[in-house]
């Protein structure tokens, strides 16, 4: 009795500490969201005070002057195509690598795995892209993102395809099916949840990235949202209300994706990280 | 009835292998080669110059400072993200009423772009910014700092912003690890009269080892590759006080000293690879025991 009482006290204490701690996380986000509705003078105290008047017009102004639609569509194009290329190529590759179980397939898996660890060599990647003749293009950025995420995706697919019994393939092969129809009819339907996880993880990391556009997108009309917000931040450095509104708009797509796709993110972390 | 493994043709590996090799592996390999050349914007011909680039790195005070800052950033973020990540995971694995909401709040900064986070923190970290005002409001005015303009602390400030952003991501991995620990261990420990600290040290930490290993490696590798936070928060300044390897590579690229920049990149590659070999061995061993 005494022990349970002490335990419930401790639970309350932990809960209070955690609630206070969550303020540290919420404070900057709230300052950003509230500030985006203030006037350019009112926003300068960077506080949690509510705006005297909620200026939705800030958003309209940012939308018109920040070239946001263009940046949004660039982001959708780059992230969408690189995620699709990544998913199609890595799921197919992992399928064969897992099923072969040979020395060569193990070596190839390790070769891919190295990509999870090694940092990319930026300047020489530019050189390779120049040799291929498309430096500065959106195509080059799409292929680089697909390459950078290959290791991570092979790693996730590898773990999942291993758990699909080989007997399923064998039955289909005995009935005369080829490798492609086994892959499309048996494996693909079973890996739909992993596809979602990989798609979301790749989408989020590519959408939020600024490193690759800085080096590889030489024309600012090709820039994605996080980089165009940086440009805007330089130009409107006095109007923090507009900067905040731009930041909120930049974050909105990933935030919405997160709300709808939470279970796939957690599922992916559990499968990839803890089960190994 | 066994089927031939030949039915799984390597054709399906080719597309992934091609993209990965061309845009990731090939640049890494030619990078090793270019590190030993005088590759510059204004040169039409390349010459081998032996260890010159590496000698330059280790004799230039800015480059040395960048290496030191990178290591400081990596060590501070590894400790901060993992200690806070474990603490959050243990607390939010208890039966709290607001558990799900708190988990979502702590995780949320890690879905945002580093660009967004860094811009939001910029005005808060000024000398007259929100953070110093908060310290003054609770009577801790002496803790006020010139967070981003004092050369002595700027790299720690950037590390703190990074910890703020991704400790919740580490928490999510630790939570998954905690949930795989059987409750029976704790019940047995309670019967034996162990307190909660003892249970934590003797049960939780050892059984959380796979998650700790992965998180430490993830944060360490990520820390050594740091670029975006520094680029947005300080651009390497004040002066060169917060330069890291990632920003030096961009600077060398901009100045046209491509051979030197590639050599810095190679140094990072070697460091990360050496550190990561224990991770590879650990994970392979785990596969065997499973």
UniProtKB/TrEMBL annotation, chain A:
Q: Where in the cell is it found?
A: Cell membrane
GO process annotations (BP): transmembrane transport
Provide this UniProt record's keywords sorted from A to Z: Cell membrane, Membrane, Transmembrane, Transmembrane helix, Transport
What InterPro entries does this protein's entry cite? MetI-like, MetI-like_sf
SUPFAM superfamilies attached here? MetI-like
Question: Per UniProt, what is the membrane topology?
Answer: Multi-pass membrane protein
Q: GO CC annotations?
A: plasma membrane
Residue ranges of every copy of the ABC transmembrane type-1 domain listed in the record: 72-261
Transmembrane residue ranges: 12-37, 71-96, 108-128, 134-160, 239-261
Q: Where is the signal peptide?
A: none
Per its UniProt record, what Pfam families does this chain match?
BPD_transp_1 (PF00528)
- Belongs to which family? Belongs to the binding-protein-dependent transport system permease family.
Query: Would you tell me the protein name for this molecule?
Result: Carbohydrate ABC transporter permease
Q: Which organism is it from?
A: Cohnella xylanilytica
From TrEMBL, chain B:
Membrane topology of the entry: Multi-pass membrane protein
PROSITE patterns (alphabetical): ABC_TM1 (PS50928)
Keyword Membrane in annotation: yes
Predominant cellular place of this UniProt entry's protein: membrane
Which SUPFAM superfamilies does the record associate with it? MetI-like
What's an example GO BP annotation here? transmembrane transport
InterPro entries, A to Z: ABC_transporter_permease, MetI-like, MetI-like_sf
Q: Where are the transmembrane segments?
A: 12-36, 71-92, 104-125, 152-178, 199-221, 260-282
For this UniProt record, give its keywords in alphabetical order, as a comma-separated list.
Cell membrane, Membrane, Transmembrane, Transmembrane helix, Transport
Highest taxon listed in the record's lineage: Bacteria
Q: Where in the cell is it found?
A: Cell membrane
Question: Which family does the entry's similarity section mention?
Answer: Belongs to the binding-protein-dependent transport system permease family.
Name the UniProt record assigns to this protein? Sugar ABC transporter permease
Source organism per UniProt: Cohnella xylanilytica
